[in-house]
Design goal:
The structure holds two protein chains of two kinds. Chain A is 76% helix and 1% strand. Chain A is mainly alpha-helical. Chain A has a two-stranded antiparallel ribbon with strand order 1-2. Chain B is mainly α. Chain B contains twelve helices and no strands. The model of chain B has no long low-confidence stretch (mean pLDDT 94). Classes of the chains: A mainly alpha, B mainly alpha. Chains A and B meet through helix 1, helix 3, helix 4, helix 5 and helix 6 of A and helix 1, helix 3, helix 4, helix 5 and helix 6 of B.
Chain lengths: 309, 272
């Protein structure tokens, strides 16, 4: 009898440990909101909506407008998605229909490695290798020929919102592509065979069976990629130039700009001595956290019923 | 050739070109880091401390710092992640509570790492009053938890009903079945996910900027600012001094080798 009560005790003890672990995770999650909110409060009380819509940022005169950083985050991510979406779709199309079977592991390995490279390495590569090349061979010729269009006006710095979007494209393509590849492979084989039996070409099967079947999944993958781009810090901070002139003094894509993450990463250490400055950066972080949470909920909602990875 | 076949051929060609194009940045980064980094890597670089600009110097404290911070992050993150995974797979009965936990874990996995760094700053650095590697480990452990929890849950769920029934038929209590048998079968997926999590946090830089910061000396204790490879790469690359930039490339090469090695190793283990 004593033995049985010992077993029951151990059983409950084990369960208790597991339960405590899950509770710790819940506490961490809630504390994250609370801590950011608490640190943001002084700035939110003082600046109100100026942190969202204001265009100037000058700690010396207590002016903290976050609009250029917020717009920089949204626009650089949007451009990255606009490039990465067709690229990823093409990769998934090649992977499922056109590539020889023994090449498939190579392609997924390439995606795997691209996703594994640390962002600070994308940053040093973008800063010291790509930036001079882009400046000399891309920005300068374009500014010389169509520089009268404000979107492409000079001068060419190399470091720019354009370069940040380019690096982001390379970083989020493997995320969108590898999820799309997985979903494409899950198309019911019978549907595809039926189409082939009707004499359809591979593209027609893709166009009318595979892609419609995977539509929701591709959408979720793209939004997931967007979330990654919005929160990407090191690579963006190193290549965007960290200047507050974009987009209110120059809308050129070749102009240096800033994002929420690059603003925080480059100013945070010096802000620690000034509560309002520090708190304003925390408010920007809170906005970013809200973006990221919404994206998680949207993808969860889209994915409902579909399971991948 | 009719129009349909031409269209098909065009798509085939474009998608092939795109795949070839996307491999260019991968190879470019690897070769670039290798060529620029290899020139500075030597014994002295690996075993000595940073020196003032122009006097050479190494990155030994940063290598050690990254390993210490990673080890602490795993010490916090792995037990929590594995325990949560076990709970979700074996004890949750798919209740509302477990859906809630899954949602939280999913959301945590999408939170940008810079936010985790700021969280650790607000929670730990401000309260302690100075930068500390403990806060860095805490921030990184929040990256480890979702990766390991998800892999543990999936690995344990994949264990077949026959194995479970066989174990229970022996009269073993549930916690013995779970820890000795089911966990044993799911072991490989837990190990691979732990390795991937280790590789992932080895490259994370943003959470360290506001927590461990950097140091030019050997780590003196875990409750101190600590150097790390990641922050060294960032600081040195942004400094613009040639001697430091070249050392940033050397550190990048080490980091890249570590991360790619773990990733390729994991693929070998899990496809076998």
């Amino acid at each position: 009898m004593k033995n049985i009560s010992k077993i029951i005790f151990l059983e409950n003890f084990f369960k208790l440990i597991l339960k405590i672990a899950t509770l710790i995770i819940i506490v961490i999650f809630l504390l994250m909101f609370y801590s950011l909110f608490e640190r943001s409060m002084p700035s939110l009380m003082e600046n109100g909506f100026y942190i969202l819509f204001g265009s100037s940022w000058d700690p010396n005169i207590k002016l903290f407008g976050g609009a250029p950083a917020i717009l920089g985050t949204i626009i650089s991510s949007a451009i990255a998605i606009a490039f990465a979406f067709p690229i990823s779709l093409s990769i998934a199309i090649f992977y499922t229909e056109y590539c020889p079977l023994r090449v498939r592991p190579i392609i997924s390995e390439i995606m795997n490695l691209l996703a594994a490279i640390p962002s600070v390495i994308y940053g040093i590569w973008g800063l010291w290798t790509i930036s001079p090349i882009i400046k000399l061979n891309f920005q300068e010729p374009i500014i010389a020929s169509i520089g009268f269009i404000p979107l492409f006006s000079g001068p060419a710095y190399g470091l720019s919102i354009f370069l940040a979007s380019l690096i982001l494209t390379i970083m989020i393509t493997p995320i969108i592509a590898s999820i799309s590849m997985d979903i494409f492979l899950k198309t019911p084989i019978l549907l595809k065979e039926a189409m082939f039996a009707l004499g359809a070409t591979k593209w027609e099967v893709l166009r009318h069976v595979v892609i419609p079947f995977a539509r929701r999944g591709i959408l979720a993958a793209t939004i997931l990629g967007l979330g990654r781009a919005l929160g990407e810090t090191m690579a963006v901070t190193m290549v965007i130039g960290n200047s507050y002139i974009w987009p209110f003094q120059s809308i050129s894509l070749f102009s240096p700009a800033t994002t929420i993450t690059s603003k925080i990463a480059s100013e945070f250490p010096e802000s620690v001595i000034d509560l309002m400055h520090n708190s304003s950066l925390m408010s920007l972080a809170l906005i970013l956290l809200l973006f990221s949470i919404s994206i998680s909920f949207i993808t969860k909602f889209i994915e409902k019923g579909v399971k991948y990875r | 050739m009719n129009l349909r076949k031409i269209k098909n051929a065009l798509i085939r060609i474009t998608s092939t070109i795109v795949v070839v194009l996307i491999t260019i940045p991968l190879l470019w980064i690897i070769f670039d880091v290798f060529i620029k980094g290899i020139s500075v890597i030597g014994l002295e670089f690996l075993i000595s401390l940073p020196a003032p600009i122009g006097e050479g110097g190494g990155i030994a404290n940063a290598i050690l710092g990254t390993l210490i911070i990673n080890a602490m992050a795993c010490a916090i993150g792995l037990p929590l992640g594995i325990a949560t995974g076990i709970y979700l797979s074996e004890y949750s009965n798919d209740s509302t509570f477990s859906t809630f936990i899954r949602t939280i874990i999913y959301t945590l996995s999408g939170v940008p790492s810079i936010i985790l760094g700021l969280f650790a700053f607000a929670l730990i650095v401000i309260r302690i009053g100075h930068y500390t590697a403990i806060a860095a480990a805490f921030a990184l452990s929040i990256i480890v938890i979702p990766i390991v929890a998800k892999a543990t849950e999936e690995g344990m769920r994949a264990v077949s009903i026959e194995i479970r029934e066989g174990a229970f038929a022996l009269g073993l209590p549930k916690w013995i079945v779970v820890t000795k048998i089911i966990l044993g079968v799911a072991k490989s997926s837990i190990i691979t996910s732990s390795l991937l999590a280790f590789a992932r946090i080895s490259g994370e830089t943003a959470p360290l900027l506001f927590t461990a910061l950097f140091s030019y000396y050997w780590p003196r204790g875990i409750n101190e600012p600590m150097a790390s490879l990641q922050v060294l790469i960032y600081n040195y690359a942004m400094s613009g001094f040639e001697a430091w930039v070249i050392r940033a490339w050397g550190a990048s090469l080490l980091l890249l080798l570590l991360v790619l090695f773990i990733n390729i190793l994991v693929r070998r283990i899990s496809t076998r």
